[in-house]
Amino acid sequence: MTLNTLEKPEILEKTETSFQLEQKSQPLHDSVRQSLEGYLTQVKGQLPKNLYDLLLAEVEAPLLECVMEYTKNNQSRAAIILGLSRGTLRKKLKQYGMLD
Length: 100
Fold this sequence. Notes:
Layout: E1 10-14, E2 19-22, H1 27-43, H2 51-70, H3 75-82, H4 86-95
Helix pairs in contact: 2-3, 3-4
């Protein structure tokens, strides 16, 4: 079983309008991209005006669920893993109805 890796792509060339990136082996990146492409195909041009917020919520909630399960609901440890303050983590857990 291959674990998803979070690696920053290397920047090869920068132009005024875009970055050209070399994509490394990024199963998580590929999964998100594939899901997003499928979503865009399904909506057939009827995009919501808040796609960015929608996408973040769809990714953030399962991320928090998985990390909280991994840490056995230890918020301090989860905050360290996520790179968040404990207060920010608690706010996000409350936002998604995950706070006991």
